[in-house]
Amino acid sequence: MSDPYALPEDRLAAGPLSGLVVVSLEQAVAAPFATRQLADLGARVIKIERPGSGDLARGYDRTVRGMSSHFVWLNRGKESVELDVRAPEGNRQLHALVGRADVLVQNLAPGAAERLGIGHELLASSHPELITCDISGYGSSGSYRNRKAYDLLVQCEAGLVSLTGTPESPSKVGLSIADICAGMYAYSGILTALIARDRTGQGAQIEVSMLEALGEWMGYAEYYTRYGGTAPARTGASHATIAPYGPFTGSDGETVTLGLQNEREWASFCEIVLRRPELRDDPRFTGNADRVAHRAELDAIVEDVASAIASEELVERLEAASIAYGRRRTVGEFGTHPQLRERRRWASFDSPVGELRGLIPPVTFRGEHPPRLGRVPALGEHTDSVLAWLARQPCTNTREEARDVH
Length: 406
Fold this sequence. Notes:
Blueprint (H helix, E strand, L loop, with lengths): L20 E5 L4 H11 L3 E6 L19 H7 L2 E5 L5 H13 L2 E4 L5 H4 L4 H4 L7 E6 L14 H7 L19 H24 L3 E6 H8 L1 H10 L16 E5 L5 E5 L3 H11 L14 H6 L1 H13 L3 H10 L3 E4 L3 H4 L3 H5 L3 E4 L6 E4 L23 H9 L6 H8 L1
Parallel strand pairs: 1-2, 1-4, 2-3, 4-5, 5-6
Antiparallel strand pairs: 7-8, 8-9, 10-11
């Protein structure tokens, strides 16, 4: 029987970044997330790992047939090279790889890149076309520059934890959101630098800090607090500044989250979903600010209606009223989401533990640039082949040679 999730072989062809060489001294989440996006688009990503242990994310868990779920998620399509970059020979090989690279990415401890001789200032004169991307917790200057930074700690420093959770208890975001947003800004910054290099012939130095990346995502909350005088309230799974906007449970125990955005929707919601048209002009609820001010009263009305009908009927009413809604799915249910299946967003890729399945990249290139889901590398799997590549007679076109080898 054919695999309904499988992608045709031609969907796995080289992508728009084919020929680009990326060398990355990376670990954990932020830098690997950035370089995996590049690998998915066809770049040759050479991942430098510590001999014997490798990227610390390899040891986070053993949930994917003995492999770490974090590592599988972040490292498909890369080449793993074990190098002791602090030893003379390993450092020489590292510099040789950097000499062949278009992009150098690192999220080492503060000052480590300079000690290895691969800081941007040390490379700028000898490699003027090189793009370097340094990812850190707090940036290369300021009193926090030498602090260790982990995702939850940055969530706390950015004020995010103060916004999430219930009124009684703040909570972290359930994903490594500070790492992820730093990785995404690194990815977009690298692409921007590549465009600029095509125009000017010059490389660039990119710096991304987790605090500043997450701080950008905190923008609305910061403006709200600075100019409104109070921070957005912690409201659990409800929206802090829009009402009604949150979860409501039907008589069958299934939860549906609904949200309104304007007064036209409010009128329709009153008439079709609540079947109480008189609420449309109730002075407690005449505008969103009024509805937020009387959230408890409004939520009680919606809960009374929702709890009296099955979730399917609630959905039917929401559909009839053109009100946005979503079902509260588990992670397991997300993995079988009908929309993702119908759009064929899942694909298979290879790994040391056999074939695995994952989502294809969310940015869809129509036509000739399909996504490429490469193999998750075993530790040091490509050390010999990459070092053999380095040992060749130097060529004048790094991109062409990289394309031949990849």
